[in-house]
Design goal:
- It is built from 13 helices and 24 strands.
- The chain is an alpha+beta fold and 448 residues long.
- A hairpin with a 4-residue loop joins strand 15 and strand 16.
- The radius of gyration is 26 Å and the shape is globular.
- The structure holds glycyl-adenosine-5'-phosphate.
- The site of glycyl-adenosine-5'-phosphate has 18 residues, from strand 11, strand 14, strand 17 and helix 9.
Length: 448
């Protein structure tokens, strides 16, 4: 495969051009650290989060879903330690007054060369007010993680569903962090979706479960199509871990801007339940019917940033290739662009926003268009299906390649005479003729 340089700019440009991701509030000059998911992006994102939910919640007897409120009592964040400790070190330039994360710069102001002030902690939680009175008693926060919802509702899940240890509570939801320096596209943003679960265990079992979750995560990253060679399991050393954690592993991925955290697993012991029990004065213990033991369960926390997962998937899928001869063999819908370059997103098929695109060979032949509309109407009841009748076939292939559509179906004159269509494969660019009535089973068997 020919080599190409993948820069973040190329990904940002493709994502905008093809309707995956747009800069937030763009017509007003943008809003730092926010991005909008366009029609293609929203489907890619939903396909990732649905697959996560199916794998980690729906397919498992030991996992329970939750969708807790974004707005939580301010005492939640006192108990969890966020009010005090959810901070990044901030420095301000004495000259231009710009602010930076102190651990990301050294020396002078990177903007104007001015002298920097003292480092101080900056709390990343967004503040707001609940109700009509804007005083300190009404001040609350937009949640910076989902995890506390699972701890605060732990007892309610126990009382309503009576799960036995080990079991987990999982949640996918929007979180907010007022990052000092958002950047690198979706990597560091000010609002994002987190997919995470708290897996409650007896403390004696934590090491085995930690290893088991690392394996599960590795298999999830395979499913996302990420190359194992680009993944690094970073054991966080004693001094860098939270004091209550005996083990934390950051799972890093080789993004275009370097090896950076993609997701993580932390052993949080009973820290959170203990804190909430203390602050709420409610009993949050678990009673084991068999051993007659009453205790606070310990917890393992695998956490996955959905937007970072999507950025990793896009990074991995992006290819620039030269179109070869073998793709152009005697079909009515042949790809005439031999020798030209193409950009293709080799997304895992199950994650692709569209699975199939349908084209009439010529947009001005009503019998071809009518037949193509019939095929399109049938396929779109089964799969996410695109329609394109603009430009020539080569141009349509290029457009579908760039959004990662695994198959393009062309209705041509042979379709009218013998009921077959051309199915062109995104990755090999090879074409084969398939009977219209066999299309659904062909795609289903190749999607599995
Ligand atoms: N409950 C644990 C927790 O929130 P975290 O390491 O602060 O842990 C979890 O965040 C995950 O959220 C990270 O592994 C990363 O994937 C994602 N993440 C964190 N900050 C982010 C940001 N500003 N923008 C996008 N994703 C972020």
């Amino acid at each position: 495969m020919p080599k190409f340089d993948l820069t973040l700019d190329k990904l940002v440009s493709l994502a905008k051009r093809r309707g995956f991701i747009y800069p937030g509030s763009e017509i007003y000059g943008g809003l730092g650290g926010t991005w909008d998911y366009g029609p293609l992006g929203v489907d890619l994102k939903r396909n990732i989060s649905n697959a996560w939910w199916k794998r980690f919640v729906q397919d498992r007897p030991d996992m329970f879903g939750l969708d807790s409120a974004i707005l939580m009592h301010s005492r939640v964040w006192e108990a969890s330690g966020h009010t005090q400790g959810f901070t990044d070190p901030l420095v301000e330039c004495k000259k231009c007054k710009r602010r930076f994360r102190a651990d990301q710069i050294s020396g002078k102001c990177p903007e104007c060369g001015g002298e920097l002030g003292d480092v101080r902690p900056f709390n990343l939680m967004f503040k707001t007010y609940i109700g009509s009175v804007e005083d300190s008693s009404a001040q609350i926060y937009l949640r910076p993680e989902n995890a506390q919802g699972m701890f605060v509702d732990f007892k309610q899940v126990l009382d309503s569903l009576h799960p036995k240890l080990p079991f987990g509570i999982a949640q996918i939801g929007r979180v907010f962090r007022n990052e000092i320096s958002p950047g690198e596209f979706l990597f560091r943003v000010r609002e994002f979706d987190l997919m995470e679960f708290e897996y409650f265990i007896h403390p004696k079992d934590w090491e085995n479960f930690f290893e088991a979750w690392l394996k599960e995560i590795s298999s999830w990253l395979d499913f996302l199509g990420l190359d194992k060679k680009k993944i690094f399991y970073h054991e966080i050393s004693d001094g860098d871990r939270a004091h209550y954690s005996k083990r934390t592993v950051d799972i890093e991925y080789q993004f275009p801007f370097g090896m950076k955290e993609l997701c993580a697993v932390a052993y949080r012991a009973d820290h959170d339940l203990k804190q909430h029990q203390k602050h709420s004065k409610k009993d949050l213990t678990y009673f084991d019917d068999e051993t007659k033991e009453r205790f606070l369960p310990h917890v393992l926390e695998p956490t996955f940033g959905l937007d970072r997962a999507l950025l990793a998937v896009l990074t991995e899928a992006y290819r620039e290739e030269t179109i070869g001869n073998e793709t152009s063999k005697g079909s009515a819908s042949k790809d005439s662009a031999v020798g030209e370059k193409r950009i293709v997103l080799k997304l895992p098929k199950v994650l692709a926003p569209y699975k199939v695109a349908v084209f009439p060979l010529l947009a001005n032949k009503s019998d071809l268009v009518k037949k193509a509309e019939d095929v399109y109407g049938e396929l779109r009841t089964k799969f996410a299906t695109a329609w394109d009748d603009r430009g020539n076939i080569g141009k349509r292939y290029r457009a579908q390649d760039e959004i990662g559509t695994p198959w393009c179906v062309t209705i041509d004159f042979d379709t009218l005479s013998n009921g077959t269509v051309t199915v062109r494969d995104r990755d090999s660019m090879k074409q084969e003729r398939i009977k219209v009535e066999n299309l659904v089973s062909y795609f289903l068997s190749n999607l599995a």
